[in-house]
């Protein structure tokens, strides 16, 4: 019996290409037979207000980009929105419903497939100069086909399109506001987190682009990350493609930017986006939610009610239409607390953290508020090359969908082998511990061989020994001589998490996780310790 073929990997597993295509066909024909009532009503309303057409945008180097246009007739002044596609073979079709909703609200809209994807010519430049030029050409195309005066311009993208949107806004002074969903600020950090190659993320990008046409340079960079080759060259390539590199231009013009992200994002880790967000000086807003890449906003892509897309509409209404809808007064940050689904607004991201609590890594596997005199010098040895039940995620993207459904991965802490992992556990919480912000870990260890990697996981452990992942971070040292003491001072990924009364925080450090490449030699050891000069501790942000 021939096994069934596996479906191609997608960063958007919930998207139904057939349903989206039927929606677009109805936009063209007006026949809404077979559409769900809500989608049918949207088609009828949009067709009464705007003209929908498919077309081609002449991009950089003359490459034709597949596009769709929602255009109002008449001489009335209007704002417009350009939407570069995500990293998917569906191209602009991903935005069909939301672009229609924007058109119904009075915007002229152009959505296009990024070069190398779907029906667009050219090769995937990974948000490089050609993609930036394409964004400006798409804006030219929309302006040329607009009958009335253009008031203001917004760029909106999800995932890949979000990075392109920020970069176009940094280079094209006509862009007045940006919405960037599941985005990146520093692409280099998305590939190398604390000098650790994020191989699962790159494999996911390659898998999701199976039908795309990657440029030789893009393919070479992905290969470099997977094999550990030419790190400096890859970082130079990524620097140009990082909005953080061009932040001065965004700040000079005070471009309003709305970000949405996920706490357990596996493709573009949240800390690099937060760093970008903190450095923006213009109007800004950040929503961070339960889930993984593009998951929190996915219901809105499908046309369902969704607070992320609601805020995206409000953001553009405020900054492109000058509507006083209150979003400018609601504070810069709103976080969804895991797993309560409580939404907590804050004036700024830093204000989410009210105080810091330090827990020292002590002998006998304890996390203690104060290190006892004479406790320095203990050693916890980890054998490299073997995995433990502590892992980042079972699957890129899909694990986040399970979290959104209220089914986070359960970690059986009793199955963690203490010969291949170092474990420290705090006392049961006397009251709820409100983690709000970016935890920091400082730990000293000795690596017997040149090149070393570890992954630190912070777990919330219930009285029965089962645990959920709060946050994590990898760390690699590639330069220290063998048998030298290495002091690692790293940020774990930001979080908003309530540790319930009676639960314990558990710190697990092991030397292997399939999500990352590791620099350890097989059967090598890492010996964690806490010298008096550089004590090892975990710093918790409380809010």
Question: Can you describe this structure?
Answer:
By secondary structure, the chain is of the alpha+beta class. The protein has 14 helices and 26 strands. The protein has helices spanning 17-29, 37-49, 96-104, 129-144, 160-171, 187-191, 199-208, 216-227, 231-240, 247-252, 270-279, 298-301, 307-321, 398-404, and strands at residues 51-58, 64-71, 78-84, 108-112, 150-158, 177-181, 192-193, 196-197, 257-262, 284-289, 333-336, 343-346, 355-362, 366-368, 379-383, 411-412, 421-425, 433-437, 440-447, 452-461, 466-477, 484-491, 495-499, 504-510, 525-529, 537-542. The longest helix is centred in the first third of the chain and has 16 residues, at 129-144. It is elongated, with a radius of gyration of 24 Å.
Give the strand line-up of the largest sheet: 1-2-4-3-5-6-9-10-11-12
- What proportion of the residues form beta strands (DSSP E)? 25-35%
Spatial shape: elongated
Amino-to-carboxy terminus distance: 57 Å
Percent of residues in helical segments? 25-40%
Q: Report Rg.
A: 24 Å
Low-confidence stretches: none
Q: Tell me about the biggest sheet?
A: 10 strands, mixed
Label the structural class. alpha+beta
Compute the number of helices. Answer: 14
Q: How many individual β-strands?
A: 26
Average residue pLDDT: 95
Protein name: CocE/NonD family hydrolase
Family: Belongs to the AB hydrolase superfamily.
GO molecular function: hydrolase activity
Pfam families: Peptidase_S15 (PF02129), PepX_C (PF08530)
């Amino acid at each position: 019996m021939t096994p069934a073929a596996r479906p191609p990997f997608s960063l958007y597993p919930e998207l139904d290409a057939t349903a989206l295509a039927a929606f677009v066909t109805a936009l063209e024909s007006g026949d809404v037979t077979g559409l769900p009532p809500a989608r049918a009503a949207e088609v009828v309303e949009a067709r009464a207000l705007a003209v929908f057409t498919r077309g081609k945008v002449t991009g950089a180097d003359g490459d034709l980009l597949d596009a769709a246009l929602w255009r109002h007739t008449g001489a009335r002044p209007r704002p417009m929105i350009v939407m570069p596609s995500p990293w998917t073979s569906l191209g602009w079709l991903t935005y069909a419903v939301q672009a229609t909703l924007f058109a119904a609200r009075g915007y002229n809209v152009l959505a296009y497939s990024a070069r190398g994807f779907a029906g667009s010519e050219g090769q995937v430049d990974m948000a490089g100069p050609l993609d930036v030029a394409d964004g400006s050409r798409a804006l030219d195309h929309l302006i040329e086909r607009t009958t009335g005066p253009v008031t203001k311009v917004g760029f909106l993208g999800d995932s890949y399109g979000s990075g392109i949107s920020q970069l176009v806004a940094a280079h094209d002074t006509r862009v007045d506001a940006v919405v960037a969903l599941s985005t990146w600020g520093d692409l280099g950090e998305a590939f190398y987190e604390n000098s650790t190659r994020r191989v699962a993320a790159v494999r996911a990008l390659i898998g999701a682009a199976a039908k795309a046409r990657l440029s030789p340079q893009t393919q070479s960079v992905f290969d470099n990350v997977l094999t550990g080759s030419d790190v400096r060259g890859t970082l130079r390539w990524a620097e140009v493609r990082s909005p953080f590199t061009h932040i001065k231009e965004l700040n000079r013009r005070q471009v309003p930017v709305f970000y949405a992200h996920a706490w357990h994002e596996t493709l573009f880790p949240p800390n690099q986006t937060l760093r970008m967000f903190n450095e923006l000086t213009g109007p800004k807003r950040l929503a961070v939610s339960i889930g993984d890449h593009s998951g929190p906003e996915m219901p809105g892509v499908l046309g369902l009610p969704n607070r992320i897309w609601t805020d995206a509409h409000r953001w553009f209404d405020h900054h492109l239409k000058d509507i006083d809808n209150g979003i400018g007064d609601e504070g810069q940050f709103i976080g969804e607390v895991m797993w309560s689904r409580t939404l907590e607004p804050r004036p700024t991201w830093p204000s989410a953290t009210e105080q810091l609590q330090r827990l020292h890594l002590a002998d006998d596997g304890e996390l203690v508020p104060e290190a006892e005199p004479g406790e320095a010098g203990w050693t916890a040895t980890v054998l490299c090359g073997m995995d433990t039940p502590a892992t980042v995620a079972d699957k890129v993207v899909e694990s986040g969908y399970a979290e959104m459904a209220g089914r986070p991965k359960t970690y059986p802490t009793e199955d963690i082998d203490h010969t291949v992992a170092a474990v420290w556990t705090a006392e049961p919480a006397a009251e709820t511990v409100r983690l709000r912000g970016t935890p920091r870990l400082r730990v000293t260890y000795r690596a017997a061989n040149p090149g070393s990697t570890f992954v630190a996981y912070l777990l919330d452990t219930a009285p029965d020994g089962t645990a959920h992942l709060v946050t994590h971070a990898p760390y690699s040292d590639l330069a220290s001589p063998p048998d030298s003491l290495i002091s690692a001072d790293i940020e774990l990924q930001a979080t908003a998490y309530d540790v319930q009364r009676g639960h314990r925080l558990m710190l697990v450090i092991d030397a292997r996780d399939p999500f990352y490449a590791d620099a350890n030699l097989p059967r090598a050891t890492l010996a964690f310790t806490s010298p008096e000069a550089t004590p090892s501790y975990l710093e918790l942000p409380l809010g």
